[in-house]
Structure formats: structure tokens, C-alpha cells
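Ops channel
N.P.: pipeline sanity check, posting one input/output pair.
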């Protein structure tokens, strides 16, 4: 990764992500991913396989993402880092030092774009 000093990736949208990955999710099945070395920020956004926006839950720093029901508002997890990203929205997270990975889950099938920025 290249050296950069981002405090908020959305504030400097012209800076391309250092690492981009796409997670393919199936309904109610959690998927876990390792954090790239040196990554300090993460932006998540989702879309269905048909191209429509969809909601999903992310557990930053844990593989404990759980889907408690059919709607994004019902998502829960066993850790305080769980976040629900509603349809049509993206979310930016700062990845703290103890974060080694993330997990994602959704009530429907779709894809989640994971864009990582970092400073090494």
C-alpha cells in the first residue's frame, strides 16, 4: 500500500482505494474476510445480483455477524461493532489496530464492495 494520510476517504474521493474486493453473499450465510495489512479505513456498499441496492450487516473486527430476520433493521451480532447498512447506502469505517477482519451477512443474495485505504 502507498503512504497516504486520509482521515476520511469520502472527503478525498479522488484518492483511489489501495485494495478493492467484492464479497458475494448468499441469504443468511455469514462470510468472513481478513483485513489487508496496513488498512486503516474501509468503505462498504452493496448491490443485488440484479443491480438493485440491498441492505446488509457488517461486523467490523469480528466473524460474528448474524442475521436475525428478513429485514436489515433486524440484524444483530454478538459484538458492539455490528453495523447495518441500509439499501442504497454505503458506510465508511476506521479500522482500529485490534481489527484483524470483518464479517458480512444479508437476508438476501447480493454483492458487497469492500474498498480499503491505509497508511503504512
Amino acid at each position: 500500500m502507498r503512504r497516504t494520510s486520509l482521515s476520511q476517504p469520502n472527503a478525498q474521493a479522488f484518492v483511489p482505494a489501495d485494495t478493492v474486493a467484492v464479497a458475494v453473499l448468499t441469504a443468511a450465510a455469514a462470510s468472513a474476510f481478513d483485513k489487508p495489512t496496513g488498512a486503516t479505513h474501509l468503505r462498504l456498499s452493496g448491490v443485488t445480483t440484479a443491480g438493485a441496492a440491498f441492505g446488509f450487516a457488517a461486523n467490523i473486527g469480528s466473524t460474528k455477524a448474524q442475521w436475525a430476520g428478513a429485514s436489515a433493521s433486524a440484524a444483530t451480532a454478538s459484538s458492539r461493532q455490528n453495523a447495518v447498512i441500509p439499501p442504497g447506502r454505503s458506510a465508511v469505517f476506521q479500522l482500529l489496530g485490534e481489527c484483524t477482519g470483518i464479517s458480512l451477512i444479508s437476508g438476501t443474495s447480493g454483492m458487497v464492495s469492500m474498498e480499503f485505504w491505509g497508511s503504512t
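N.P.: looks fine end to end. The two ends are 7 Å apart (CA to CA).
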